[in-house]
Amino acid sequence: MNDSSAAHHAHTIRVEDNVLVRGQGRFVDDPRENGQLYAHFVRSPHAFARIRSVDIAEARRAPGVVAVLTAADMKAANIGSVARHPPMAGRNGSKLVIPYRPALADGRALHVGEAVAMVIATSPGAAQDAAEQVAVDYEEIKPAVDLRAAIAAGAPQIWPDAPGNIALDWAIPADDGTAAREVEAILKSASHVARVSVVNQRIAAATMEPRGATASYDPSTNTYTLRACSQSAVVMRDSVAPIAGLQRDQLRVISEDVGGAFGMKSGPYPEYPALLAAAKVAGKPVHWMSSRSESFVSDNHARDSITEAELGLDENGKFLALRIRHLANLGAYVAAAGAHLNTNNFSRCLPAMYHIPKLDVGARCVFTNTVPIGAYRGAGRPELNYVLERVVDEAARLTGIDGAKLRRRNLIPKSKIPYKTPVGTVYDSGNFPAVFDRAIELADYANFSKRRREAKKRGKFRGIGICCMLEHAGAMPNEGAAMVFPGDNTLIVALGVGSTGQGHATVYAKMAAERFGISPERVRVLQGDTKLDVASNASVGSRSTMTVGSAVVRAVSTTLEKGRKIASHVLETAEADIAYRDGVFSVAGTDRRISLFDLAKRASELAKRNEIPESLDTKVTTDTPQTFPNGCHIAEVEVDPGTGMVEVVRYTGVDDCGVVLDHTLVEGQLHGSIAQGLGQVLFENLAYDSANGQVVSGSFMDYAMPRADNMPPIAGDEVNSPATTNPLGVKGVGEAGTTGSLAAIMNAIADAVPGGGANHLDMPATPEKVWAACRNAGP
Fold first, then answer.
1. What angle do CA 650, 653, 657 make, to 5 degrees?
2. Phi-psi sector, 426: left (phi>0), alpha (psi -120 to 50), beta
3. Percent helix, strand and coil across the chain, each rounded to 5?
4. Pick from 379, 366, 302, 300: which is nearest to 330 by CA?
5. What is the DSSP letter of 688?
6. Is residue 526 packed enough to be buried (19+ CB in 10 Å), middle (13-18) or exposed (0-12)?
7. Which residue has the higher pLDDT, 582 or 477?
């Protein structure tokens, strides 16, 4: 990374990496339980079909088979609906349609890859071989696959209580239509109206580690354990337990090392309650590990939306009003956050860094016979920022105003912060003009024309694209943390969120150590186990550092408050005379003192004898309001008109992520999220055959992924305004690169191809599409 500001920062070494680079991590497929059995799922080959019968007789007789389970067995085990989406209201009092989602298909199969039966055997091979002996009699039905076609007249109806396949028709502002009429009037009278229609193609999370889990049952206590790769063991327990008809204390969930998640591993899936049922039936632990091909048709997919935007401007290029109509694919069922991310998550980014006085946003969430759509890095924020920055670029072309000047003219000034938006959020901090100006300077925007001329001499088209992005971070405010003293002169920081590569053990150990004034080597971070009994939401939405950090700060201060009381008892003095510094409680003006760890031991003994109310162990929960990370990302590309190949040759990212706790981790988050954005722009496309609903890019032979040599050098800087909504002043950063890179790179491609040939190109910008755009380019 060519980082002009972070290069001088001391880069920390992540404590997690030593184990991982030595291959000593514990991922979901690593542990082996005694007598462990293996599951294999029989999956529907059809996108839409009635299930006339499921014949398991041959499979039951196959070598090594212990049991074969179907929908009837799920009912017998009291397994309920896997759909766990909160209720939502739409236009005119309508409600989000949340259909029943069975763990194993019951009567109908609604997408290719839906689990229909489950084989449990003594080895993975035996289970897979026996699964081929399960005979399912399907009656195929014409599927609704394409998003636009699914809402057209005469389209196949997937759910009877969702006419026209509309699960939710949603709008903001949710008023009587006044805002929509105001926006309509402004657009009619505006000097300029820029219009675009953009597509966010369907993509796969493609995590290094596919999903998997091991379920076990203890009949002596009537309790279960589920070892699963997740973004929060607590969230997984709290969602899977009611599906399985269990109380929370009947299910322990453990998530150890997780090989990538990006939102995809944040919610429940049909396999997990099915595994719990299988463990009880078989009387032994049952393990399942998804294959890569299986993950392409069973893991939640991402994006898949069509968005239209109209931006009205006055004669001087000032933004007046914005109208957006968003059409979002939910898939066959409503995934854990499927409708939420295409409505609330999408709209709360508005009006981004710009002053846009009037907004009218509508979204329709649509059922199709495809894999459900769930959260993926950004989860609605990239989609909104993408369409907004594409329509701003269109406005620049329409008005003839340089894109940088037009953006600068419409930024919310620092003097207007805090700024209440038309959607009801409040930007508590930020300096958008300073962020923008630094990005323009760092990208050497003023000299771009020289680089374009030089590229032309080499037969290349060079373009530059800007994205002013803003997102909201921390949608779920509640989070907990615990300080535990096990008695061996160490401190355990117990957390509920799950780390999936973000460096939690590094940053939170350092945070606690600094506040206690002790060595970081004395601090261990434990997470990913509901037995820790820490309140939590998942590590999603760029929320962890804000919410967990706030909880850790409160837990430390609460521990020290308790410590002073206990130290006054132990040192036989008034609490007001107790001082604390660098791991030691002392009596002011004397040599009487006791270390933090010695006090913890004494406190534990005193609490056992009921001489004090409780030990020094401390558990807290906090509520942390949202923050609004923002930034300006600028991409430069070169296009080979002879082949359509696009190379991202320069990339500049200037971000406001509040107070930076660890520059190494911030840089890592930005690199990773930019890579995922670049992948969506240039390569990734999870394509369906619209006629029969088959996934036609369901392997890495067909699903193109970015490689190291596709990544450009990144010039990064920070213009940070500390958040006022949490004690650390931090904002989210984990999704900034994905949110900013889509429009930056696509706008650069549009700028590169002369004559407007690529102005309305959709992602992915494959060589074939770009080559055709070059052929169709004007003079």
1. 165
2. beta
3. 35, 25, 40
4. 366
5. B
6. middle
7. 582
- State the distance between the two ends of the chain, measured CA to CA, in whole angstroms: 37
Among residues 726, 730, 677, 400, the alpha carbon closest in space to that of 542 is found at 730
CA distance 627 to 630: 10
384 vs 371: CA distance, rounded Å:
22
Model pLDDT for residues 541-577, shown as the tens digit of each residue: 777 888 889 999 999 999 999 999 999 999 999 999 9
Q: What is the mean pLDDT of residues 154-174?
A: 95
Given a contact cutoff of 8 angstroms between Cβ atoms, the answer to whether 631 and 646 are in contact is no
DSSP, collapsed to helix, strand or coil, labels residue 336 as: coil
Higher pLDDT, 504 or 616: 616
With beta carbons less than 8 A apart as the criterion, state whether 194 and 394 touch.
yes
56, two tokens: 């398991």
Average pLDDT over residues 62-81: 98
Cα separation, 761 vs 746, whole angstroms: 8
Quote the CA–CA distance of 668 and 650 in Å, as a whole number: 18
Q: Residue 616, SS3?
A: coil
Sheet holding 286-289, edge to edge: 65-69, 115-121, 37-43, 286-289, 212-218, 223-228, 251-254
**Measured in whole angstroms, how far is the alpha carbon of residue 714 from the centre of its chain?**
23
Q: Is the pLDDT confidence value at 664 over 90?
A: no
Predicted confidence at residue 776, as pLDDT, reads: 82
- Which residues, in sequence order, are bridge partners of residue 328? 305, 365
Structure tokens at 162: 């969702």
Evaluate if residue 498 carries a pLDDT over 90: no
In tens, the pLDDT along 370-417 reads: 999 999 999 899 999 999 999 999 999 999 999 999 999 999 999 999
pLDDT of the residue at 60: 97
| Other CB atoms within 10 Å distance of the CB of residue 522 | 17
CB 670 within 8 A of CB 736: yes
Structure tokens at 336: 């854990």
Cα 410 from Cα 408, distance rounded (Å): 5
State the DSSP string of 460-517: -EEEEEEEEEE--B-SS-EEEEEEE--SSS-EEEEESB--SSS-HHHHHHHHHHHHHT
pLDDT band at 779 (very low <50, low <70, confident <90, very high): low
Q: Which domains does the chain have, with CATH numbers?
A: 1-30+411-473+626-779 (3.30.365.10), 35-381 (3.90.1170.50), 478-623 (3.30.365.10)
pTM of the model: 0.94
Buried b / exposed e along 295-310 (16+ C-beta atoms within 10 A): bbbbbbbbbbbbbbbb
